[in-house]
Amino acid sequence: MIHRQEISTLLQAPPIGTSVTVMGWVRAWRGNRFMVLNDGSGVETLQVVVNGEDFSEETIRAIGFHACVGVTGELIESQGSGQSVEVIAKEITIYGPTDLSEYPLQAKSQSMEFLRENAQFRMRTNTFSTVFRLSHALSFATNKYFNDRNFYNLHTPIITGNDAEGAGEMFRVTTLDPAAPPRDEDGNVDYSKDFFGKSTHLTVSGQLQAEIGAMAMGKVYTFGPTFRAENSHTSRHLSEFWMIEPEIAFADIDNNQDLAEDYLKYLINHCLDNYRADLEFLDDRIKQSEKNMKAELRRPMGLIEMLEFTVRDDFARITYTEAIRLIQGSKPYKKKKFEFPVEWGTDLQAEHERWLVEKHFKKPVIVRDYPKGFKAFYMRLNDDNETVAAMDILFPYIGEMVGGSQREEREDVLRARMKEMDVHEDELAWYLQLRTFGGCPHAGFGLGFERMVMFVTGMTNIRDVIPFPRAPKTADF
Q1: What residues contact 203, with CB distance under 8 A and at least 6 apart?
Q2: What confidence score (pLDDT) does residue 92 get?
Q3: Cα separation of 21 and 204, whole Å?
Q4: Nearest to 246 by CA among 262, 268, 222, 264
Q5: Which end of the chain is more exposed for a tag (fewer CB within 10 A), N or C?
């Protein structure tokens, strides 16, 4: 049996003068004497002092950048600066050497693009091990938050016959021969001969199925993969990403806003309270990367300052109509500084959302009551017959972080909206029956998990906050 002590735990209360055994990957190897070791348990590293005369030349040669080693030795107070303790090596085990003439990564700064191309090794870097520890923190906090508030986790299907968004940009799932699929009498592909007996796709959302759970269990949430077949190459889009979607019965749009704001603050506070060292590392990384930039191109706040800014005050709450009025009355709009024009009836762009958050209110903003024309069929129609009880939560740097709504519980109104938006009733008969039999007011929202990880870590490309990104022309691993 292998026995070791994790470095992050060891450093919390270092047992000076005792023998310790640590195992990990070499982050630095200086002068064939000083080894810097990290085992992934935290951002912290441990220096190991190696007296060359105590070990064979073969062992010394095998110690290199990202080699995997085990060390047993005495933990002492450090004789140098930069660390409080160090280990005097007595035994060294080489678990996995690295041939630096072949190894893609080197002991120097690597570009994000290069690390994406070698993603099998990028978690060994300080930046990415930190990012994925924080990703874990947000995932754990999500499940704890909803569990502690009596929500039930629901596994909604990945393969579905419904398009929850109505966008149509979905990946088809089929076992039919693409070269010669069976066809009906009209010449269309006959999906009744397919594996599921109908046309099926990878899901874009678990919301509609989550409503089934809410109509029986009161409060549920989903946390699973979703898929979009959009040919987008931007830094904010993935073809496969994870969504968190709570759904609550006996709730309206105001309850929905309260839940979403409380949940987002909980996630951020969890990271601030429990992963400070990781956040400080990323904060310093951002400052170092921006130090040679022009002042106007730098972030106005450091990472930790931004996170604390986000949770400090209540979110501002305005209607879409008020948002349009504020933007149109702003100096940037009047001076034509915005790339996109805005008028009532058009969706807000990221530049408008960020102006509301970063310049006008100087805190996160919840915008509600959007025009029905560009929102989904299931959102509750307001009394003005022009807007729906929808909401978006806008964050600094990111723009939209959460989208949600009160759901339309009135069957006659829902049928009319489906007809208006060309959503076929026969495909969603079960969804209508939730209103016919024992329906009630209910609401919910969706949070793109990777977008939240981007915000908390300060990373600028969404492909750098998911371990194995799926995007157009990208499906490695």
Answers
A1: 156, 157, 158, 159, 160, 164, 226, 227
A2: 97
A3: 47
A4: 222
A5: N
